[in-house]
Structure formats: structure tokens, C-alpha cells
Design brief:
The structure is a homodimer of 519-residue chains. The first copy, chain A, has 16 helices and 18 strands. With 519 residues, chain A is of the alpha+beta class. Chains A, B: This is FAD-binding oxidoreductase.
Chain lengths: 519, 519
């Protein structure tokens, strides 16, 4: 994109790389398994004609800008189901007027200055993988998508302190490539790893792949450097501090509404060399739930401890015979590890160990491979009119079983209501804490092109309602964006909302940054 | 105090219990070891006559109030060296006009309402153990000390999720007494444990006794309930969330300037049953520093990993022969533990293991006993005119050795300059993170009554300067209060300061709460 010779092309309408998208026949075959679904996929769309740009950046910024239709199209939405459906429908009425790709922090400041003067909204864009409407704009006026991926370097590595200074636009693979020669890793692998940036992770309080320990990127931040419309804010690099409320925690989760995170000092670690894993099948999901709670409270820190319910295990190929599957994994940079303790707990709760425990075959590998492939399958199903989306939450253990069951029931009922056929609501627990799990739900239901957006909005409303009634968070790690504002507004204390509005007025007095997000 | 039959009486002028204070002869003997110090202690003071109260709470609150001189005197200051010296001098000119002891959250709100109407400042008071001027008032007008220790109950225990709902005024021992029947503990033991409250810990981002893992109380918070002058803010109980900036993190560290923390859901855990410990001596401090860095980055989580430099080890009786001492401790609720790995690292860096490793004798016990006794010794030395105070910080490993040496040199020079004799600057590392340690310094210098305040202020200014120059935090866990504002204002990003001011204007529009703190 824009002068980079990529061997692969990013899909402007769907997930990931164009070459990885499902072929038509595969889409049909997949959709055939979903009752009530159309099985002829709509065509992969061409970039439609876009509205003429309504904003013209000044000459000094012109070299950083593009109004190229394919680029504007690719920056119109994130990668939620809603986004894919709208793109497939050819609805790019909300495309950015301009895409700006700053090369320096000063460029970022210059864009914010110009935008403030010109009354143009600025939506920060990292890898563009938001699944919550975080990178689009729903206002009326002109807007620019501020693509930060040219700020993609690891500027400094402090091997003594195990920390690295990283630019906000660094994509996951680029980060790890630059840390690898030092024998270091951030060890933060969200599902969107290939298509998301460090700055995006920080702005959305991203959750990594690891089930326990520091699950959110928040916990590996030493300091942040943030460009706001009124100046730059930089905190000191500190391993810990008790000096007033944390300045960094105000920007973590600010979703581009308070400033643009241009740099961060992050805690890195030695690359793990020792691994162990195991998989355990359960006949009864409640038994598995009890097992993972005991594991989460047993004082161990596992790299992986994912519980897939029957449907999720079946869908991912981790288990075919009506079982829930618990995938356990440990790793260390320091010495041999095992999963003996957690395995013992799982077996005591009625689990049955799978034979393969080397982490590269069996249920572990099946699930891992399906996990990375899943967004492409999602796109294929969407082309066939299916309703296919995920949402995640977190709650305390005392309500976990009730909540999971209520979501299954109520979201399932909503899907049946709007689709006219039974859908599927699967659950896995992606992250575990001593005081509660993070349940992650997948909704699948048969549908047809044209009805998908409205159908999903109704199903999503049911999900928001059941989460809110149980005081389970509207998002564990996908962020709020625009799609989850109703749930967020219910969850957030009113006085914190008022506080955020006051902070926004200070840092972004002209309301330039990501309008509609947070406040 | 006020209707409670205490077997022991809190000292109004010094640390802890009156019966634990040092006898005159012991003070003299201790001071005799400090060159240049007076050795006749000034008398333990009587409560001086206090200014007549300038504020009269309304009848509805009168039953919660006291203007009793001993109570007002005890609520005038915290327990910093400056506070003890001022109390010994009989300077209680800044005493609160009234001390209010609410019984309910509604009482707290009523006090804030009245204070706003009457133009009276309100300074929240937990256990009164602030060592940074957090619980006094330095303005001109009338003020009340809002003593929260009647809100002292554990309201609910969720054993399934391992969490407890605790009132903000619960003192450390009361908390543990109420959790013990459930087999649970918060495992948060600051040095002030007996004399500090849960709400105080939360408002000051207190650091516990444990060297690694969740060191700050911040990390065990599920939700907070806070009474502000404009209403109550309550967050949802969540094990984790990615929904916008954390509402709780705004109140954590807010030091009573944004609201009064009346309740919190906190993560508790099973009481540990297995322990192991060891002590290692080092001839050279840099070797010990290298050892603890390697331990901190070795993937273990120790309960204890305190490094005492030569002076600190000598002072506490942990080592008499010119050694630095590293105290290692592991604990678990789940199974046997050992400290073999960290011990091996320490020995590889030239450490020599002490013989006793059972955790109840030798260097470990000596240091532990001295640790708890230290504030009483401080008071005894203060009565003899000594300069005796501590401060703590945190920094990354790349600057740790340079910083510790710079503090020793520059703070030592300042002490020599103002006292005319060589003082002592000892260091221990109290908390360890993979990316840096928390060094804790003790300053001891001979002096005389009458010169202590000015002398300490000059020494403290030197400490603030050297910490700031190295971008080491002004406080790791003592908080900012009024005493550390200069260092805090230097450290805090300007835009975060502006943000906090905006939040303060929203939550405390009449500026009632702890004026002078934070903003």
C-alpha cells in the first residue's frame, strides 16, 4: 500500500489477505451446514465509486495523503461482521475523504492542527482490525482516516530492564521481527496480531492470546507518548509508581478519542524455549467450568487454559464426539515446564486426557489452526447471508454458569426469532482470572443477503441486554467503539462519564478526535 | 477512641500505640550512636491548647462529631518525621476544627453537603498513618478531619470468586480478622498495616509487604464505590475489562481529592500454608544488585526478595559484619515451596547463604522485627533532635545502580551540609519488577531540636532533585500528599495535570475535598 511492495494484498472488504479468502465453492459447502442459510455466495465486491473528497489537506500534508479509492475503501470500516456485510453490499457512503499516513510524530500533530482548523474529524487507524466500529466515522462532515502504520519501528531496546520503545503504528509481526534479534518478545498475540498495531492495542486495551498472567496489554506498559490536539503528553518510564492516579491508564482504552499514541515503552521478555500442553475432554460443561475455576485459583500461571464448549469444540475440530475440550499450555524461558497440576485438577473433575500432549497435534493444534482461520470462514459465511459474529465479556465466578447459560438461551432465542431457524451460540473461555473468566461467544445463524445487518443488530441487542443485566462487561478485549456504546453507557459510572467528557474537553477542545467514541 | 473500649491508646503525636513508644533512656542510648545528635530527649508532649473550633456542623451531624482536644490533636497530622517534630514542638496550629466519624455512607454524603455549603474543607482520614502530609490541611479556613474508621466491616464474602466487599474505613487487622474465618486473606501488609485502612490503601495506591506479584493494592480491585460531593460513583465487579479507560484507576491514587472511597470489592485468596525462606550475604552491593535483577527476571514470583545494603543490614541487626543481605521468601496456599532457584542465582553472584532458612530466626527474623519496630525508633530519635526519615522510589534496571549511588552521594552531602556532621543514607530494595526495583532509602543524621524541620526540608529537596533528574518516581507507595508535590508536579505530564483539574472541577466543584492534594 502506498509505495510499499507487499507480496500480498490486504482485503479492503473482508479480513486479512485477499489470497486467503475462501473460494466460492468452499463458502457454499460451509453454508450448506447452516440450516436456513443461502448457499450461493454473493460475489466478492469491486471497489464502488466513492463520493468526491470533501476535504483538502494543505500542501504541507499533501505528500502524506491519498484519496485513492481502494485505500479509502479499505479505511472505511473495521472488520466486524457488520463491516463486511456493508462492504459486500457496496455501501461505502461513509468512506473517509482522505487517508493520511504520517511519517513522523510532527506529521501527526500537523494533521490534528489542520483538522481542528478545518473542522475535519480524525479517526486514528492502526491495523484496521476493529470489530466494534472503532475506526469508522458516523458523523455527517468530512473526515480523515489517520493511518499510523508508517510509524512502525522499535526505536530502542533496553535489554538490561527488558523493555523496548516502540512506535504506535508497529504491526504485530513487525514488532516481533524487530525484537527477535534481541532474543526478546512482547508475548502479546491477539487473534488480529497480523493486522493490528501496538498503538491500537494500547488504545483498545487489547487482550493477548495468553490465558493468564498479564492478559491485557495495559499491564506491560512502562510509559506512553501521546499526541493530543493541544500538545504531547509523555509519562516517565517506571516499573511501578504510587504517584497519583496513573496517567497511562487514562490513555489506555481511550480508543483514539483523547490522543494518538505515537510511542510506548513496553515490558518485553525472553523468548520462551520450554513448552508443555495437554487437552482434556469433558462430557459435561459444568464439570469443565468447575475444573477451570479450580485451576484459575490454584496459583499457577498457564500460557493457555482455554475451555471450548461442545459446539465450539465441534466447530473447530478439536472434538467431534459431543465433548467440551480444555486446552492447557505452559511455557517458560527459564526451564522445563509441565501442566501436571492443572491436568490433575481437570481429571478430578471428570475430564479425560487426550493422548497427544506435544502441542502440535490433536485438539490443541486443531483448535489453534481453526482460531487463526476463523475470520476468513466468517467472511465466507457472510457472503452466503449467514449471521456470524462473536462477542466477549468477563464476569465473576459466582455468576459465570448462570451468565453463560442465559446468553446461550436469550441470544439463541433472538437468533431464532429474527432468522426463523435455530442458530448456534457457542462459548469458549479465553482468559481466566482467580475471580472470574472471560467467556467468548460465537453466534451462527442461517440468513440471506439483505437481512443480515438488521438481524445482527437485534441479536446483538439481546446480547447487550443479557450481559448488562448480569453486570458482565460489555467487552473484555474487543473495545467499545461505536457498536457497543449502549452497553458501555449502561456499565460506565455516570460520574466517570462526566469525568471523561471533561478530560476530552481539555485534550481535544475542538472535538477532532474519533467523534462518537467514548463520549 | 469515642466510645470504643480500646485496651491500648493511639499516640496523638507519634507512631502507633503509646505503650510501645521508647523510654527516655532507650532514646538517649540510641541517639548516642548517631554523631552530632543531642542525647537528651525532649519530653513526650501534652496536648496543647487548641484554637476554638471555627466550624459548627448542623445538629443532624453533631452526634458524629467531636471537638475533643486529644482527638483533634491526633488528627492534625499524619505520621511523617515532619509531623512528629511539629507535634513535639507543640505546633498544632493547623488542628482540625472538628473531627467527624460517619457511621454510614449517607453520613459521608451529608458531611460533604454541609461542608460545601459552609465553605469548610474536608480531609479524609483512614488510619492517619500518612507519611507525606496527606491527612493534614495547610489552608487558612476551617476544616474537618473525616475519620472513616467506623465504616469498618467486611460486608460480603464471595468465596466462589474469592472476593470480598469491604468498607473503606476497615483497618488492616480488622480486615484480616473478618476474612480469617473464611480461610481467606487480602495478603496486603504495608508497614502501616495496624494503622491504615482499606480506603486509605486504595486512595494512596498502597504497596504491600510482598516483593513481587501484585505489589500495589491497585491490582486486587474488582470495583469501587466512591462518595463524591456530586454523588456516588460505583463500578461493576469485574475480573478484567477492556471497556474504555478504567474508572477505578482514576480513583486509585486520588488521595481523597476526588471522592471518599466507602466500599470496594477486593480479590482475596486462600491463606498460605507453605513457606520457605533464606538469607544470603554479599560483600559487594553491586553483586547483590545484579543477583536480584536476575531473580526478578527469572520468572519466579517470590513473596519476599528484599535486598538490604550494608548500612541497612547493620542497622536492622540482619548482618553485623559489613555485608549486604538478601532475604528470600516463598509462600503458597497450594503446596510446598522452596527458594532454590533464586538462591542458586544469588550464590552464583558471589552471595553466601546463611545457615538458618526456616524464616523464624537469623537475618530474616532480625530484619522483620526491626521493620515493625522502626517507626517507634524513629520517634525516639526524633525526640533527641535527630533527622530520621525515609523515602522510596522506583526506576528501571538500567539506571538503578547509578540512581542508588547518586542518592547516597547527594542526599548524604545535603545531610552533611545542614547537620555539620556525616549522616547515614541506607538503602533497601523493597519491591522488584522484571523491569526495575523499588529502592527505599533511610536517612539518619545528628541534629538538635529546633533545627529538624528546616534541615529535613533541605535534605528532602536534594532527594527530590536527584530522583527527578533520573526520572525515578517521587513515590513508589507512600503517595504524594502535600510533601511531595514539587516532585510530583515535575513528574506528572502537564496534560494529565490539566485533565485531573478538569475531573476535580466535575466531581468536587466547590473544592471541598482535601484541598492542596494532587491539583
Amino acid at each position: 500500500m502506498l509505495g510499499r511492495m507487499e507480496q500480498r494484498t490486504r482485503s479492503w472488504w473482508g479480513w486479512g489477505w485477499t489470497g486467503e479468502a475462501m473460494a466460492d465453492e468452499a463458502c457454499s459447502a460451509l453454508a450448506a451446514g447452516l440450516p436456513g442459510c443461502a448457499t450461493d455466495p454473493v460475489p466478492v465486491p469491486e471497489v464502488p465509486e466513492l463520493r468526491a473528497p470533501r476535504a483538502a489537506p494543505p500542501a504541507a500534508l499533501a505528500g502524506l495523503c491519498t484519496a485513492e479509492p481502494a485505500v479509502r475503501a479499505g479505511h472505511t470500516y473495521g472488520k466486524a461482521f457488520r463491516d463486511v456485510v456493508r462492504a459486500l453490499d457496496g455501501d461505502l457512503s461513509g468512506a473517509p475523504d482522505v487517508v493520511v499516513l504520517p511519517r513522523t510524530e510532527d506529521d501527526v500533530a500537523a494533521v490534528l492542527d489542520w483538522a481542528g482548523d478545518a473542522g475535519v474529524a480524525v479517526v486514528p487507524y492502526g491495523g484496521g482490525s476493529s470489530v466494534v466500529g472503532g475506526t469508522e466515522y458516523r458523523g455527517e462532515g468530512p473526515w480523515v482516516s489517520l493511518d499510523l502504520t508508517r510509524l512502525d519501528r522499535v526505536l530502542e531496546v533496553d535489554a538490561t530492564s527488558r523493555a523496548a520503545r516502540v512506535q504506535g503504528g508497529t504491526l504485530g509481526p513487525g514488532l516481533e521481527d524487530q525484537l527477535r534479534p534481541h532474543g526478546l518478545t512482547l508475548r502479546h498475540f491477539p487473534q488480529s496480531f497480523e493486522f493490528s498495531t501496538v498503538g491500537g492495542w494500547l488504545a483498545t486495551r487489547s487482550g493477548g492470546h495468553y490465558a493468564m498472567g498479564p492478559t491485557h496489554v495495559d499491564d506491560v506498559v512502562e510509559s506512553l507518548r501521546v499526541v493530543t490536539p493541544v500538545g504531547v503528553s509523555e509519562s516517565w518510564r517506571l516499573p511501578a509508581s504510587g504517584a497519583g492516579p496513573s496517567p497511562d491508564r487514562l490513555f489506555l482504552g481511550s480508543e483514539g478519542a483523547l490522543g494518538v499514541i505515537t510511542e510506548a515503552w513496553l515490558r518485553v521478555q525472553r523468548r520462551p524455549e520450554h513448552r508443555a500442553s495437554a487437552a482434556v475432554r469433558f462430557v459435561r460443561f459444568p464439570d469443565a467450568l468447575a475444573a477451570v475455576r479450580e485451576i484459575a485459583q490454584s496459583g499457577v500461571t498457564l500460557a493457555n487454559c482455554r475451555l471450548l464448549d461442545h459446539g465450539e469444540a465441534h466447530f473447530s475440530g478439536a472434538a467431534s464426539g459431543g465433548h467440551a475440550v480444555l486446552v492447557l499450555g505452559a511455557e517458560s524461558a527459564h526451564g522445563p515446564v509441565d501442566v501436571a497440576g492443572p491436568l490433575e485438577i481437570a481429571l478430578a473433575h471428570g475430564g479425560v486426557a487426550e493422548e497427544c500432549t506435544d502441542g502440535r497435534d490433536g485438539a490443541v493444534a486443531s483448535w489453534r489452526s481453526a482460531f487463526l482461520r476463523m475470520p476468513y470462514l466468517r467472511d465466507g459465511l457472510a457472503r452466503c447471508g449467514a449471521i456470524v459474529e462473536t462477542f466477549e465479556t468477563a464476569c465473576t465466578w459466582d455468576t459465570a454458569d448462570v451468565l453463560v447459560e442465559a446468553v446461550r438461551t436469550e441470544v439463541g432465542a433472538a437468533a431464532r426469532e429474527v432468522c426463523g431457524v435455530d442458530g448456534i451460540v457457542n462459548c469458549r473461555l479465553t482468559h481466566l482470572y482467580p475471580d472470574g473468566p472471560a467467556p467468548y461467544f460465537t453466534v451462527l445463524a442461517g440468513g440471506r443477503p439483505g437481512m443480515q445487518l438488521g438481524a445482527w443488530d437485534e441479536i446483538r441487542a439481546a446480547a447487550t441486554e443479557v450481559l448488562g443485566r448480569h453486570r458482565a462487561t460489555i467487552t473484555h478485549h474487543h473495545a467499545v467503539g461505536r457498536d457497543h456504546r449502549p452497553g458501555y453507557d449502561r456499565q460506565r459510572p455516570d460520574l466517570f462519564a462526566a469525568s471523561l467528557r471533561a478530560v476530552k474537553a481539555v485534550l481535544d477542545p475542538r472535538g477532532v478526535l474519533n467523534p462518537g467514541v467514548l463520549v
